[in-house]
Amino acid sequence: MTLTQEAPPVAPARAVPQKARRRDGLATTIMVAPATILYVVMLIIPVGLAFYLSLTDWDGFSANPAFVGAANYVSLFDDPDLRRAALVTLLVAAAGTAGLNLFGLGFALLVNGASKANTFFRIVLFYPHVLSALVVGFLWSAILGTTGAVNNLVTTWGGEVIPFLSDPTWATVTMIAVLVWAGFGVNVVLYLAGLQAVPHSLIEAARIDGATRWQVFRNVTLPALGPSVTVNIVLSLVTLLKTYDLVVSLTAGGPAGQTQTVAYLILWNSIHDSRLGFGSAQSVILMLVTAALAFVVTRLRRRGELAVHQ
Question: Other C-beta atoms within 10 Å of 171: how many?
Fold first, then answer.
């Protein structure tokens, strides 16, 4: 005779009362409302207003903007200043992103680890980011200008003035270098956070197997830093594409407009030339290009990360 043990009956799940569901939904709505209102007020409405103004011919003062349709967007393709500014912006974004991430990762590896010296150097590396970009621009202008501290020393020693800010090529390179100097502290912090997440056991296993430091970095550390690299590249790219404040204080777009970025040109057209409609059209295009580049870079980086882990 075989005895079988029956499973105890499972109690049916109790349905959540409708009143409780409403209460939970109301609580969720209340918690989400401040962020939603802030998002709408600070982003959705300004973007919508910028798009509307881009379809008008408005000087910023008249009561009734004149509707011109897509005329401002058509004019963008015939504007030589915008083409030059777009090339400068892409150069600054590409070179600056590379510099920020190379220096950021390099210094993060140097100051990684718990020690008083590393803590001190982390503060020093991050400090330039605390300064306003306008202050940074004026500071380096006083150092690298034609009559600045560096050129005063050079001429005192019998040398010729170095055109850091007076030659188009020198001025562009100087601007990129100052941007990297002022911003790579953030990249250091983000890479340090990523390094803390790298499994120490994998590093030790690679060293036991005889791997060199470069092999450990290439095959263990760098693949584990994939998400940090993606975040740093996208943040650097987006930040550099909208650079304008440092241009204002460092070069003022000179010499002869050769260091004007698109963001700087937008402000110039909107405020100095009182062409707010044309400037709004430029800002809409810049926003779309920035979003597209950020999306493409993110997708490519994610594919790379998946390929590494497969």
Answer: 23
Nearest CA-CA partner of 140 in 88, 178, 102, 98? 178
Tokens read off for 132: 């306003």
**Partners of 57 in beta bridges:** 66
Does residue 253 contact residue 247 with C-beta atoms inside 8 Å? yes
CB 258 within 8 A of CB 198: no
| 29-67: pLDDT as tens digits | 888 888 899 989 988 998 898 899 899 888 878 778 888
Question: Quick one: 210 exposed, middle or buried, by C-beta within 10 A (0-12, 13-18, 19+)?
Answer: exposed
Contact 150, 143 (CB under 8 A): yes
Residue 46 near residue 54 (C-beta atoms within 8 A)? no
Q: Is the backbone peptide bond immediately before 128 cis, with ω within 30 degrees of 0?
A: no
**pLDDT tier at 196 (50, 70, 90 boundaries)?**
confident
Q: How many CB atoms lie within 10 A of CB 165?
A: 22
- Please tell me the distance from the alpha carbon of residue 231 to that of residue 301, in angstroms, as a whole number: 9
Both ends of the chain: CA-CA distance in Å?
55
pLDDT of residue 213 exceeding 50: yes
The string of pLDDT tens digits covering residues 228-247 is: 899 999 999 999 999 988 99
Lowest mean pLDDT among 206-220, 231-245, 273-287: 206-220
| 213 and 112 Cβ atoms separated by less than 8 Å | no
Hey, how many other C-beta atoms are within 10 angstroms of the C-beta on 277? 25
Gap between the Cα atoms of 55 and 87, Å rounded? 25
Query: From residue 19, how far is each of 12, 16, 30, 31, 137 by CA, in Å?
Result: 20, 8, 17, 19, 59
